[in-house]
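Risk mitigation, structural track. In case the binding assays with magnesium ion fail to produce interpretable data, a predicted complex structure has been prepared as a fallback.
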Amino acid sequence: MKDELFSNYQPTAVPPKDCFRALRTPLRFLKGVGPKRAAQLEGLGLNTVEDLLYHLPFRYEDRRHIKKIRQATVGKEESFIGRLVALEKKFIPRTRRSILTGTLADETGTLGLVWYRVRPYIAKSLVKGQELLIHGKVERGMGAQKRMVHPEFESMESGNEEERERILPIYLKPGGMSLSSIRRWVAQALDEYCGFLPSFLPDVIARREGTTDLARAMAEVHRPEKIADIVSLNEFASRAHRSIIFDEFFYLQLGLGLRRKYRTTLKGISFTGDERSLTQKMSALLPFSLTGAQERVLSEIHQDMESPRPMQRLVQGDVGSGKTIVAWLAALRAIENGFQAVWMAPTELLAEQHYRNLKGFAEKLAVPIALLTGSLSSGEKRDTVQGIERGETAFMIGTHALIQEGVHVPRMGLGIIDEQHRFGVIQRMALQHLSGGRGASAPSLPQPDILLMSATPIPRSLAMVLYGDMEVSSVDEMPPGRIPVLTRLFNEGARQELYELVREELRKGHQAYIVYPLVEASEKLQLRDATRMARELSESVFREFRLGLVHGRMNSEERDQTMRRFKDGDVQVLVATTVIEVGIDIPNATVMVVEHAERFGLSQLHQLRGRVGRGKDPSRCFLVTYDGNNPDGLRRLKVMEKEHDGFKIAEADLALRGPGELLGTRQSGLADFRLANLVRDSRLLLEARKEALAWLAQDPRLTGKESRPLKEILKQRWGGRLELGGIG
Ligand code: ADP
Ligand code: MG
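Fallback model:
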């Protein structure tokens, strides 16, 4: 635990591969840890030496000013050094528990110490007569004496004078483990492994960004110098913190940039904008004029389509912002150039909905169109596939059946992936390769353009991480005349009023959604569940109405059947789990109740709410919460009452719950940082992106001398998640 170890530190000369091998040493092999402690640390997700090094203090305590006990101020957090002159364990009959009391004395006075919960390690490490440094909040005790409850403490026997007054890092730790054990192991890890922290960031970048090398940064965050600025440490904004964060962002952005560069070396199709036979006619058929945002996004798409490189563009926009028509116009551009366009939707119902909506236009434009889903009979399927494979069908809509059937689309020019977050990377890639036929990849063929669509708008910082390898367009304006969905929070007590409001809508001939977070009752959670409530409600409050139930554990045929009955108005109240989230369009549904709203993310609630307010009648959304006593939870949900802009809601969601909750775990892999935080550190992210792209601009394949270790680190850290295997 000597500071000199870090002050004369030399940047590592160890090759990156060996660095990672060393850093991935299991913690049980770190001196002093052992298998039992290692197992406890695993509970915090700390498995390797690297994990421990990145386990940064969540807070720093200022112990640079050790006061005399006489100067203790009630209400302040302070540090004192003294001798433990009394120590006593008392049994309190009323609570049937033991408490530990002590007295700390220096030459100016005494201070009472109290522990109401006596952890074994506390009792073990305190000895009467010992010299202690204690830290905590001073309180008023009995009589004139001041006291401290559950103070932090450490024995002074071993420490030298210098060691006493300092900034103390506080770590998250497993219960029953002392803070000083964690600090000892971290120091041990720094001693032995600091030289293996890969610090290869090129000098020019480090100088420009004012960052220090990783090893030094790591030493500084764990053992801040006495002169360090404690405020910036606590804000994770010290130079050391920024260096570690920059390092994390930089490699990810380098990887994303590399993927993007790789794509631009592939051959694509140059669609020309000269041929306007279909797009022009379509403009005349449109029942409305495009919004400014739609126009802008469309022209961004057209630019990509004209370029000889394959397009990979994500169009994000709120539910109802009119992405469908934009994608349809892009498809027509491909078709008027003599190519085929493929549209992939996540469910049969959505595929059918798009098919029905676009069929009218297609017929007027004489564009041959087909629907391909799993539920076609084998005869229908064969005919449809033949039409596509002969190149006669210009526009096809389908589910992943398109991929499963291994359809060959000989003149595929554009692939559209609707609700893209519902598909995995494999499925997206498979769509791209339909032109090769039967899953074969044919690199000699020009790659089709790909348009991804997402109705979950995400903040710019998150987009830079998740979609950093593609272009992103935002339809950030709603078509005119939308009536915002009136949103209100309810608690359990107002349930009858709530039901009455729903019944009122139903009597007017409208339809309702009631959404639950769960399918069935679970033993652990006292939650209302869809299955039980559908039964209960149909026998009581909604006796005179027709109810239907859909949830994720039904097979898709059952589910689609009920959804169709709801669409036809045969079912009036749809009890559902979140399976109704995706783009379903039923204008007659004017009211939605979300039960246990506190269990949903804001973006998810916004998605759900987007199922109503799609017709000309005003719609309402009622959010029922059960933990009315939790002010944070309520404040969070209140955002929904006021805010109707999906981008703003996503920002609030990201700030409040983090990317994992915002996106669902499936997609958040790339946003899993050790230290970086997309809200707090968005400016550093921007810097890292700029630097990474500039670096790639002068060394596109990372073959230069300084780039080689960068490439290795990139592979080690992000290779799997970024699927860099094929890029070499
Ligand atoms: P989403 O972006 O959620 O896919 P849609 O494309 O389904 O939204 O559009 C929602 C509704 O808005 C559709 O009924 C569509 O016809 C309509 N719409 C789209 N663009 C405009 C516009 N510029 N003006 C008026 N209505 C529009
Ligand atoms: Mg849509």
